[in-house]
Amino acid sequence: MSHNDFIYADNAATTAVLPAVADAMLPFFTEIYGNASSPYEIGRRAKSALENARAEIAHCFGCDAAEIFFTSGGTESNNWAIQSIMKQKSKESKTHIITSQIEHHSILRVCQEWEKEGGTVTYLPVDKNGLVNPADVEKSIRGNTALVSIMAANNEIGTLQPLQEIGGICRSHNVLFHTDAVQAVGHLPINPHDIPVDLFSFSAHKFHGPKGIGGLYVNRSVNLPPLLFGGEQERAKRPGTQNVAAAVGLSTALSLACQEMTERNEKIRKLRDLLIENVLKIPGSSLNGDPNQRLPGNANFCFEGIEGESLLLMMDMHNIYCSSGSACTSGATDPSHVILALGVPKDLARSSVRISLSHLNTEEDVRQIISVLEEAISRLRRLRP
Ligand SMILES: *Cc1c(COP(=O)(O)O)cnc(C)c1O
Hints:
- Strand 3, helix 5 and strand 4 form a beta-alpha-beta unit.
- The mean pLDDT is 96.
- The protein folds into two domains: 2-16 and 261-383, Aspartate Aminotransferase, domain 1 (Alpha-Beta Complex); 19-256, Aspartate Aminotransferase, domain 2, CATH 3.40.640.
- It is globular.
- Strands 2-8-7-6-5-3-4 form a seven-stranded mixed beta sheet, sandwiched between helices. It has a three-stranded antiparallel beta sheet with strand order 9-10-12. It has a two-stranded parallel sheet with strand order 1-11.
- Helix 4 packs parallel to helix 5 (105-116).
- The two termini are 37 Å apart.
- With 385 residues, the chain is an alpha/beta fold.
- The longest helix is centred in the last third of the chain and has 36 residues, at 244-279.
- It has helices at residues 19-25, 27-30, 41-61, 74-89, 105-116, 134-140, 163-172, 244-279, 308-317, 337-341, 346-349, 363-383, and strands at 7-8, 68-71, 96-100, 120-124, 145-149, 176-180, 199-203, 214-218, 285-287, 298-303, 320-321, 353-356.
- The protein binds pyridoxal-5'-phosphate.
- Residues 73-75, 104, 106, 151, 155, 180, 182-183, 203, 206, 214 line the site of pyridoxal-5'-phosphate.
């Protein structure tokens, strides 16, 4: 990005808000700032913008507007889906959840809380590429299984799960299926008519929209109880004054992402493949995640004998921003639970670095990343005691 003095390669953590998205949001701060529940002109205009945003989002997913609920983001959507379904299903003595070992913490921590309350959770293992085996899902379903929650795309290694097969198994056993689609929405087509899914979570800031807004798709056939109680907003399922500007930002970003998906992905894949091809020439390097079933912009590597955190610092000194494992856990020196689940030994897992690209990156960015990585790794290896 020539207008910046840094290279941003951490798009799995968050993305830049596109100027067109910010422009669409602006009037709702300073002109049309009415409460969407208020009956007068600027309230009605806010309400209509909110409902247009919902309709536009539904159009991108090929679902009904009534199936889209606005939330504060991916974390809230995941919490809402799991907590509310379990509260409802436990009344029928269905207290078992099936998930995977490589979920985002906003799924894993909720499941751990559920265990503390006396529920049971199966954390499915993944293969060396990070794939859940659908047969494992089927084998784990019991009479008291209420919910299967398996992510669409992993935030660290980019592996895409076989949602079609997993969803089909859930349908045939009459078990609800939720997917954390935060990394997939806006990057790959997600359509609840093609994938047998009952609920999915998404978040605007992962596809060039604003932070602090996301949504939950809830299939018409599911009567999801609320997580929060208060006003009548979002049909009393998610009370609180709606963030109209952010909802407009979300829908604008999603529409652009859907319209431009093919072109963006063609560019991003080319850049990512250039990156992977060259980084794998570095001695002692390896790619984490599935070589084919992965997000277009994700590359995640291990480097023998390297501390990922030190490598990040050296990249930072060259104004290149990337991540070691998940941004939410950085600071902690523990190796990533995702990389460990692949069967990577602890020491090697500590060396993992994630480089996540967007369509705003250039070939020049990638060449710069490769050259700085090469240099930083050989320096760190020379410095080794
Ligand atoms: C970022 C992310 C979340 C959390 O979304 P927020 O909107 O930041 O709360 C959840 N799941 C995955 C896979 C993510 O990448």
